Structure formats: C-alpha cells, structure tokens
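Notebook entry, structure prediction.
Reason for the run: the old model in the group folder had no record of what sequence produced it. Starting over properly, with the input documented here first.
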Amino acid sequence: MRAANFPDRKLTVDEFLEWVETDPEAEFVFEDGTRRHKCDVRFELYEGAVTAMSPERAGHAEAKFNAAMTLRSAIEANNLPCKTWINGLGVRIDDGTLYEPDALVRCGDRLGGDAQEVSDPVIIVEILSPSTRSKDIGEKMEAYLSLPSLHHYLIVDAGKRKAIHYHRDQGEVEFRIRIVSSGPITLDPPGIKIALEDILPPPDLGDEEASR
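New structure, fully documented this time:
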C-alpha cells in the first residue's frame, strides 16, 4: 500500500486542487492509528497549509443532509435559479485558502460539470462540532463574511439546538446577527424561508453526537 504524505510546503489553491486528485488510493496513517485512503478524506487549505477534516458522526451528517435538503426544497418551491450543494465543492477565499462548507447555495448560470469550487455563494451553512467549533465561529466566519456575494452564513449548533444567522440585506455592506432557537429563518436573497426544526436531528442522539 502506497503511503500518502501531506505536502512539505505551502500550496496555492490551484496546486492544492491538483494535489487532492493525485494518487487517490494512497493511504494516510493518522496520529490515532486510523488509516484512510486519500480519496476517502476531505481536505481544506488554510494559508497554504493542507488540513484533513475529521470523520463525521451521525448527528453531524444528518444535520448537514437536512440543511441541504431543506434549502433545496425551498429553492424548488419558489422556482429560483439557484442550486444547493452538500460539501464537495470548495469556496476560494484567496490564493492560499479554500474551505469546504457543509452546505452552500449558489444562484445564477449552471456551473460546468468539472467545476471544483464556487466563487460566489449566496448562502453558506456550517454544522458545529467539537473539532470545528472555534474555526467555524472564528477564522471561517471572518473569511466567509469577506465574500462580496455572500448574504447568509448560518452556523448550526445541533447540540444546543440553535443557530447563529449572519445576514446582510440587499445593498448593505455590514452583516447583522440573529440567534435562532425555533421558527423560520428568512434567507433573502435569494428569497426563501426555512425552519430550524427541519435541520436539527432528533435530540435523542445526545449533545455530543448531534454536534458530530
């Protein structure tokens, strides 16, 4: 089995995307002794450094799936020219940083089939977990809110059963903050409403499990 290694230098986003697709069957051995093929690992790039994302727990995966499906249903119900993705596509922040949100919405012309990233998301959703909490409400939040196209950054805390909604109205520069514990969340643009209850997994999964 071929051993996989992280790059020994900083990469640009273009170099990172090429590295991710190179030798997908090579195997990483992580500090906890677990082994995973490169093609089974999700990666992000921060200031040129490659990081591996932790394996998901059931609660996190369910909340992520629920978020994407809820957004998709609302978009289709309103016949909007937008599309929802559940991870897989990166969001380029600058030449050395690319994140992979849990879910995102982009509007406009359809992306080409070979696209690996989205440069103009309208909505980004991240599901909090113990391993990503500080990043999602810290460096990622600052990076996402710098994107001119972004109008909504939704941070879902499944364990505490609430969400933080950063939203920017049409034509405004600054974001407002709303804490949501129940009821509808208005996402305009693109012009939809979703319910937090449709995203959250059942509470019987437990706080830690629901948070990933």
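Summary: Residues 205-212 have pLDDT under 50 and may be disordered.
The old model has been moved to the deprecated folder.
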